[in-house]
Design brief:
FAD-dep_OxRdtase; 21 strands; FAD-binding oxidoreductase; about 30% helix; alpha+beta
Length: about 325
Amino acid sequence: MTSSSPIVIVGAGVLGLCTAFELHRRGRAVLVVDPGEVNASLVAAGMIAPAMESAIEDVSVDRAQLFRAGRDLWPKFARVAGIALERRPAEWRGGDVEVIEARLRALGFDARRDGASVTTDDDCQVEPPQALAALKQALGAAVVAGTVTTIARTDGGWRLKVGDRWLDAEGVVLATGAGDAIIGLPETARRLIEEIQPIGGQIGVTAGHLVDHVVRGPGAYVAPMASGAVIGATMEPGRRDTAPDAKASERLTQAAWAALGRSPEPLFIEWRVGIRGATADGLPLAGAAPGEEGLFMALAPRRNGWLLGPLVGAVVADAIEGRTASPHARALDPGRF
């Protein structure tokens, strides 16, 4: 694709910004339309956790390899983008520690057993506020505030209505999370977006220093953050409201203290809810929209948006540039549905 018009990325969560940054560093003109709302990428712990996610979810070998490939892109991506990537242990504590250890080892991940816990060094973490800010800073004036309300095909590409103006685009990347389909989208793309399931995820942020590394257990995790710690996280299919739920807060708090093996302490916890999108197989839509030239997707990663951000960005950028697809592109291809 060659044109004087930019590639317009609709949405400024982790997948949209990673895709925009990947295109930008390849020398492509991009424009990110940022609705400015608190998105699910911000309401997250920033886990880059192929090992623990694979073990807890009991995924296939192929899915674990995909997660590992996503993690392996992060060191270089973070260095170039100015993102602080923390490589720190992740520990599982719980009655099913033997099961988690066996799954880690079967999938080829590092696992160290110590009594009633198992630890891996194959996971890492970013701070979502810092990472999103770094990506936006790297993109500079290419990030503009606004909401795309209408999209239309033109002879040379696409036009998008943002407020009271129209933007011309060589290509469009839909990175709209669990949002509604934009008016004017072609039928195939609209149907794919309408089939995305919203999932509410609630986390708690506290200024208290609770852990030096990620600690997970049945029902909760506790992870260090620059400002203290984060406690998470619920996964509530079908939820679209962002009001914290008191019962969920209590369940997470109890599970977190149990994982830490400590008696509850008085802490002020700020509870937040983000709405994620999920496909039927739990993997994002990343690549060309079926049958629509110049229209691409980078959305609906379920719980692994941060883990898969650079991989999704590379897959979408390859599709835009007509490059040979990466070995993992097929698993993320929107056409699989």
